[in-house]
Amino acid sequence: MAVYGYVRVSTSRQVDEGESLAVQERQIRGYAMQLGLEIDRIFMEKGVSGSVPLADRPQGKALLERLKAGDTIITAKLDRMFRSAVDALGVLEDMKARSVSLHMIDLGGDVTGNGISKLVFTILSAVAEAERDRIRERITTVKADQKSRGRYLGGKVPFGFTVGNGGDLVEVPEEQEVIAQAMHLRTKMLLPLRKVREALISKGHHISLSALHRVLQERGAVHFKH
């Protein structure tokens, strides 16, 4: 059963001066001494942002790969190991399942096995869900903005367009003409979708029924009453 410390600084200035690393190391060794534990190794993460998940950091990855059941990790602060609650929650759950103890000095000690662990997990779960919601909202907002500006968002290129060099959707004149005819047949002539497609094919315009459905749906003409 090994005992490991983990320290991290994110800026080159902190790395050069070494003060932050030294302070964290002293805190960890002092805490371990109080518990009668002997540190086997301290993993020092130098110049790595906290936004990088623990498993993607050089020393963080090495630490996680080294762990065995019964091992103990000590870190000075929650934000030295994690910046994201999603990352923290996932790693903590994995450590708990592997019977690895994680002590965070700023949170009062063992956050995987003592009385405060339930509170920590509850708080992290709530914060992690809020983080996921914010990420979803940002993605939705970005996609909506890109769509409003005619940006290609991946997937099947919609009928009537091609992707330009800058990633914009560029109209294809011939296919736009087919769309115009389809709209006329649907909204003015009141033809069902299949009849619209048959009429287009008879004029030499080949378009699948699913593509036609998408085109008219985007223009609010799929459920047009007739």
Characteristics of this structure?
226 residues; alpha/beta; Rossmann fold; two-stranded antiparallel ribbon; 9 helices
Query: What order do the SSEs take from the amino end to the carboxyl end, as H and E?
Result: EHHEHEHHEEHEEHHH
Question: What count of domains describes the coordinates?
Answer: 2
The CATH homologous superfamily name of the largest domain equals: Resolvase, N-terminal catalytic domain
Which strand order do you get reading across the main beta sheet? Answer: 2-1-3-4-5
Cα distance spanning the termini: 76 Å
The strand count comes to: 7
- What structural category characterises the helix and strand content? alpha/beta
InterPro entries: Recombinase_CS, Resolv_N, Resolvase-like_N_sf, SSR_resolvase
GO molecular function: DNA binding; DNA strand exchange activity
Protein name: Resolvase
Organism: Komagataeibacter xylinus
